[in-house]
Design a protein that fits this description.
By secondary structure, this protein is of the alpha/beta class. Helix 2 crosses helix 6 and helix 5 crosses helix 7.
């Protein structure tokens, strides 16, 4: 496997880091309504202060952002398992209370098309989406990491995963997809720095007798395994996510896409853990957050 220095010398793109974070809609509302300093919210947002400075110091050219659409652009009429946004820009969606007051997302159509071509040729069937409005699943992570800028400081490729309507992809399939995305990025012949973000989760359930479920012990064990042994974590069946982390805990398979794209999975050095944070609750959800850096050995 070529390392990051060799890739840069040859003018190739490379994945520099992976970022993992929950995308709770109430977090976006707290930001938009100036409540980040409230007693309830302040401990959560303090956990991202390091992350905002880290982003300034490690700003990528492009973020490949893995999230799930919440019946905004994809309803029960059409539900792609994996969909990549290939447009030049993406507007914030109106999720019933008006679009969030955040900037439009600027895409990277050329890199998105290259990734789609490469990943499809690696036998993953992606849906190409040229018109896409992005909801809180994508905009809340950007707000957590960048604050409230006039413009997002880098381009973003949205990547939707169906974790809403069964059947949903397995953790193993997501982990393998991350590896295919890394190969795709590394074959792009421009010296771009790319971060891959996995969003959603952690434990939460929004309906039924277990509504409000949070399993902090299981969540932290998941974070441990994601860092130390993602290949084994990827074998965990769906029922374990649902049983231990609630019906919406299945969103965590999206984190395995980002983790699968890291260099150590392909035989490179273990990533550097730059930041880890966990907080409960945010609304009715546990919030997890990691930053892993690829080592440029």
């Amino acid at each position: 496997m070529q390392n990051a220095h060799a890739q840069a010398a040859q003018g190739q793109a490379r994945i520099t880091a992976s970022v993992f974070t929950s995308h709770v809609p109430a977090i976006g509302a707290a930001i938009d309504h100036g409540k980040t300093g409230d007693d309830y919210w302040k401990p959560l947002f303090q956990g991202y202060e390091y992350s905002k400075q880290w982003m300034q110091d490690h700003l990528p050219d492009v973020i490949f952002l893995v999230y799930n659409d919440h019946a905004t652009s994809f309803d029960l009429g059409v539900i792609p398992t994996f969909a990549i946004g290939t447009a030049a820009e993406f507007e914030p969606a109106d999720e019933g209370y008006g679009p969030r007051p955040v900037p439009k997302v600027q895409g990277h159509p050329d890199l998105a098309a290259h990734i789609a071509q490469s990943v499809i040729q690696q036998d993953f069937d992606l849906t190409l989406v040229n018109t896409l409005k992005v909801d809180h699943g994508l905009t809340v992570p950007l707000s957590l990491m960048f604050g409230q800028p006039e413009h997002w400081p880098c381009q973003v490729i949205p990547f939707h995963v169906n974790v809403v309507q069964y059947p949903v992809p397995s953790g193993q399939r997501c982990f393998q997809l991350g590896q295919a995305i890394r190969r795709a990025v590394e074959s792009y012949d421009r010296p771009l720095k790319v971060q891959i973000w996995g969003t959603g989760g952690m434990s939460h359930q929004l309906q039924g007798p277990r509504a409000g479920l949070i399993n902090a012990e299981w969540d932290n064990r998941f974070l441990d395994r994601l860092i130390e042994d993602p290949a084994d974590l990827a074998t965990m069946p769906h029922i374990d996510y649902v049983r231990e982390a609630g019906s919406e805990g299945i969103e965590l398979v999206m984190w395995l896409i980002a983790r699968g794209a890291m260099a150590d999975v392909a035989g490179g050095p273990a990533p550097k853990l730059a930041h880890r944070f966990f907080h409960v609750p945010a609304s009715n959800t546990a919030v997890g957050h990691l930053i892993l850096e690829n080592r440029n050995d």
